[in-house]
Request: fold
Amino acid sequence: MQSHPSTQSAWLRSYYLGRGIFSIAWVAAAVLFSGQPGAAAFLLVIYPAWDALANLADARVNGGLKASPSQALNVVVSTVTALAVFAAVSHSTYAVLAVFGVWAILSGLLQLYTGVGRWRQYGAQWAMILSGAQSALAGGYMISRSIGTVAPTILDVAPYAGFGAFYFMLSAIWLAALAWRSAHA
Reply:
């Protein structure tokens, strides 16, 4: 059962803000620990695992996994990705970047689909739609880098997370502005 639209909008503002803050912290940690293989490996595994948990929480608040099939699939894709990254970190950084590339494409398309579905009900989803599209494009770029000659590092993933942070924060601010305008209209 879904909540009142204003409660849902408040949830989305908080959700987007939390996702943005996590991504900012992740990028900072990636830059700080880029030279430490164990810490970088942990961060690379935790990023898609966090995405799985965040999508699960959001789907539950928005009617459950059955009511949000794109997020349910994103939970599965992100969980499988976290496991694949865990396996790939001991193999090669090229493999890790390829896994991230495939994940960025799939999760981006699923985020785009979720954003389009929410547009009518909540508005202000244009940033999430752009983020999903950009994620899919970034995935293609990561895959191309994963077959290059220069060994990838966590810093090849950091810009992707940074843009994610930007879009999540922008969405939170936009929804807050819409709520403020609505309350003062």
Notes: The two ends are 29 Å apart (CA to CA). The CA atoms of residues 98 and 143 lie 5 Å apart. The chain has a mean pLDDT of 91. Residues 5-183 form one domain.
